[in-house]
Amino acid sequence: MSQIALDRVPPAPALDDGAAVRLREVTVRFTTERGVTTALERVSLSIPRGGFLTLLGPSGCGKSTLLRVVSDLIPATSGEVEVLGTSAAAARAARDIGFVFQDASLLAWRNALENVELPLEVGGGGKRRGARDPRELLALVGLSGWEKAYPHELSGGMRQRVAIARALVNDPKLLLMDEPFGALDEITRDRLNEELLRVWENTGATILFVTHSIYEAAFLGQQVLLMAARPGRVREIVPVPLPNPRRIAMRDTPQFVELAAHLRRVLETC
Amino acid sequence: MSAPALSSSNTSEVFASDDSARAQFAAAARLSAWRRRLLPLGAAILLLLLWEVSVVFFHIRPFIAPAPTAVAATLYDKFGLLIANLAPTAVEAIAGFLIGNSAAILLATVFVHQRTAEEAFFPIAVMVHTIPVMAYAPILVLLLGNGMEAKVAIAALICFFPTLVNMTRGLRAVSPQQMELMRILSASSSEIFFKLRLKSSLPYLFSALKIAAATSVIGAIVGEWIGATTGIGALIIQATYNFDSALLYATIVVGSLFSATFFGVISWLERYFLKWNVSQTG
Questions:
Q1: Is the pLDDT of residue B282 over 50?
Q2: What is the arithmetic mean of pLDDT over A34-44?
Q3: Considering the entire predicted model, what is its pTM?
Q4: Range of B213's domain?
């Protein structure tokens, strides 16, 4: 908890040209009634194309803000944001970014298939080349036969699968996920974790995944980015030494247990 | 209750093949469904009977209060007259309903896109709403004359406010994440309106429309009280002045039946259009 440890300069990210996302010294400040809040303080990071980075940190560390800067929902107050070799706004406009929210955010009046088709109907999304077949995507997330089901007829896990299929319909190169499995029970979450890794291998997309769960962060990520709160900043980037493809059983290996213990120790100082 | 079944070692069998229990459950469900329908019907018949007996027993004179049988006889004898008077009231109520609700929906749409307009006009809408319908009805009759226009205007005005409030709230009942989704998809403001806001507002709109279905009929009748030669309202006034209580009651029955049918049609439309709404289907 010492000041020196907190002020430690984050490790310099590996700057290779094929980075899917590159942030340099990104700072985000909000003006609220209680004054100016710094959500992100000089955050620098780089995710290679096809990578899977999990963001782990206490609440208030700016994890969600970071996703929203990358997806052009919130402007950076200062610093440079580069997404797929261009600006966040251009990447968003080109439909190269898919976003999955914490609650599935499905439209209640559309059935599963119609929800997946939404991106093709708005913002000129249907005219874009490379759109994927919504039925195939539902099958990919294990929901064939549920095309006609309305959100209220689906379980929480199934709704989140629909949301993932919807995020994939424009075949995005970057998938941003904001605690998508946070509200699910542990059994469903484990199953969806494995399925997400399968989707990741199937699509070759880069994934940036925010979570509160140490196990989820370690199991999914090729790297885990630990963040500290108030102000939100990068604490440490930890590579995950597990082989691919991942299996849930790997969480019982000494390697995994040691990694989780390390992440927990660092989080305690955040 | 079914102790032998529970003591069975194979638990899957307990649920899978207990036909007698399932039949028992279905019978209980049928019985409770019939109870829900028959109890109110029985109570209504009992009250009507009590009314009939009281009129005969206390020698209540027909112009004070008619017996239910007398009302029924009038409904049958003067069916043509009643329907001829229902027609203008129905036209006024339905026209007022359509105009008032359309205006409210349009203004709510403006409010949602222009905060300034809401800040300027919403207090005025509240003020107009606080004026009792009996107070502004004569004003509208003076302005629009003795024809249908005044009645339609009164019915429209009475529908307007509840729909304006509900629709404004409904159009705003969009989650921040759904808005973020639309922004990520570069959706235009008309796409956000038609594909997101309008659909999310429908449950709010229909609860306002159900209120408006009943109040629009009230508006038309009140308008006819002020000055009209035909209509349910005019017939109520005439029957009262002629001490024709059986006709008065029969007129009220016809007016109520129309109101209930109007309400029923809107409820049916709500069930049809809002199949996806869990809180409504549940």
A1: no
A2: 88
A3: 0.80
A4: 68-281
Please, what is the end-to-end C-alpha distance for chain A in angstroms? 7
Report the pLDDT value the prediction gives residue A129, as an integer from 0 to 100.
65
Chain B positions touching A121 (Cβ under 8 A) are 191, 195
The average confidence (pLDDT) of chain B is 88
* Dist CA B240 CA B255 (whole Å): 15
Whether the Cβ atoms of residue B51 and residue B67 lie closer than 8 Å to each other? yes
Q: Look at domain A3-96+173-181+196-268 and name its CATH class.
A: alpha beta
Nearest CB to A99; choose among B181, B202, B278: B181
Which residue in B180, B181, B199 is closest to A109 by CB distance?
A: B199
- Tens digits of per-residue pLDDT, A176-192? 999 999 888 888 889 88
Average pLDDT over residues A199-223: 92
Q: Where are the domains of chain A?
A: 3-96+173-181+196-268, 101-171
A123 contacts on B by Cβ (under 8 Å): 185-188, 191
Q: Is B276 within 8 Å of A150 when comparing Cβ atoms?
A: yes
Q: Which of B182, B274, B276 is closest, CB to CB, to A122?
A: B182
Q: Residue A41 in 3-state DSSP?
A: strand
The CATH number of the domain holding residue B192 is 1.10.3720.10
Contacts of B182 in chain A (CB under 8 A): 122
Give the tens place of pLDDT for each residue, B28-85: 989 888 988 899 999 999 999 999 999 999 998 888 889 999 999 999 999 999 999 9
Identify the residue whose tokens are 């709403």. B129
Is-contact A233 A269, C-beta < 8 A? no
Judge whether residue B121 has pLDDT over 60: yes
Q: Which of A67, A73, A109 to mutate to test the interface with B (most CBs of B within 10 A)?
A: A109
User: Which residues, in sequence order, are bridge partners of residue A97?
Assistant: A174
Cβ-defined contact of A152 to B187 (cutoff 8 Å) = no
The rounded distance, in Å, linking the Cα atoms of B247 and B236 is 8
Mark whether B73 and B49 lie in a shared domain: no
* Alpha-carbon span A162 to A104, nearest angstrom: 8
When divided into structural domains, chain B yields a total of 2
CB contact under 8 A, B177 and A108: no
What pLDDT, on the 0 to 100 scale, is given for residue A1? 39
